[in-house]
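yo

u said u wanted the structure for the complex thing, so here. seqs first:
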Amino acid sequence: MNQRLGQPRRRSPVWTIRGSLSRKLYWSIAATSFCVWIAAWWAVTALQLVDPLFLPGPGAVLRRFDLWLRDGGLLRDAGISIFRVTAGFLLSAAIALPLGLVIGAYRPVRAFFEPLLEFARYLPAVAFVPMVLLWTGIGESSKILVIWIGTFFQMVIMLSEDVGRVPLPQVETARTLGASGREVVILVLLRSAMPAMFDTLRITLGWAWTYLVVAELVAANSGLGYAILKAQRFLQTDRIFVGIIVIGLIGLGTDQVLRWLHRRLFPWAGARS
Amino acid sequence: MNQTLAVQALCKWFSTAAARFDALSDISFGVGAGEFVAVVGASGCGKSTLLRIIAGLEQPSSGDVLVDQQVICGPGRDRAMVFQDYSLYPWLTVIENIRFSLRLRSGRLAPDSAAAQSAAERSELLMELMGLTRVRDAHPHELSGGMRQRVAIARALLSKPQLLLMDEPFGALDAQTREVMHDLILHIVALERPTIVFVTHDVEEAVYLADRVIVLAPGPGRIDSVWPIGLPPALERTQDLKRSPAFLATSREILDRIRATSGLQSDLDALRRLTGAAGRAATTIM
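structre next:
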């Protein structure tokens, strides 16, 4: 009798650990996942299993979306929130990119900043809100500063690690070919780490959105986070859902655009998910 | 003799709070212009450290390295190095990788000058010589390991360095690809007469390629013996040569020296005792 070796029956390569999946199948499964959750949501509310106050149905949320959109408030709120997130994120990136690069390149700079940053990244951004109000008042800068505090420290550490992961032979080859220290940093470290740094920025942009609600917690009178907090006061749970879903969709959209851009800009590098 | 490289009483040690670890002890040797020297030895004998010090990537604890009678004090374009792997720039194409040194301030040439013209011609020549013409505009991730090493060698040769340093350049390649690379190197040797210091753990490779083989002994790393290899000129060597009695005898003698200095003998004794005991146990059960 023949003894079978390995797996008892042939399995689809799709279920192999870290196996392969076609793009088409990936997106079909992703779309199914969304549909399943929405259907479950609809079923639970249509059968009136929970109080609509606790969980408004898809219909109610859609109606609220339409209403909010038509009075012009939704676009204005989304616009101001996008502005705040973008400004806070860009401010973080503008400082974190050069700083992360020199920390990753030079050990003494790393020694100077790293322990400080490891300490700072545990500082709760939320707890800084009263201080931020004292420092910057109630204008736009206070919201931008809260988002900056929430993202900057993590961002610098991650960017410096991206630079640190550049293979040493790439650096040493450049040196034996006559590159100066400056040239190694710009032509090798920065260039080689760029795809990873781009990915880091994409991931930290997501975190910037999570700090938006905190930033709009106090002294705001517009924005998606503010709208959610105001709806909470009036128990307009359908409005809370619209706010959350809109933030989610903006995030999903930006993320896909940035992934596409990554593939276009760095076709030679594998993406980190 | 016109010496390109002179290593003089080179020592390298690493200090911790508790102890001093000697990696290299009193290494002295010279390499003449156009000579091919291979350095072999048991793992941990410091052969890679020695090469990195010659490249200027690490500093010696004492002693000097001279290239063309000048004491070196850091890496420079006179000593190009080929690493085992991961040294190509993945964002550049094959030809851009080969021409990388021309982007640097130290290697930049005035555009449209005669020098720039000849550098461009030389990069095309090296690409052809290395069999890379078909993949000129490919990126490294599209190439096999062997093709990647060809690019790395072409890149190192572009600026005609005084010294070509190779640190186990074929260590990550399969046996067939390695043989192809050996013959490629011999053609380069015949054509360009580069001065080469080649570190490897493959004795057969060392004997086939080099004019002289230096055996390093570990603990601390020191020169155990030096073997002149009297093989025919580069282009007359063929893979058949590796089966000739003289080739096999030299290889075996060098291998014996490495084995004698590596300190692995006691392990074998222990294994014999164990297998002997197991054999006796098996007979009693029967």
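Residues 58-265 of chain A form a domain with the MetI-like fold fold (CATH 1.10.3720.10). Chain A has a mean pLDDT of 90.
cya
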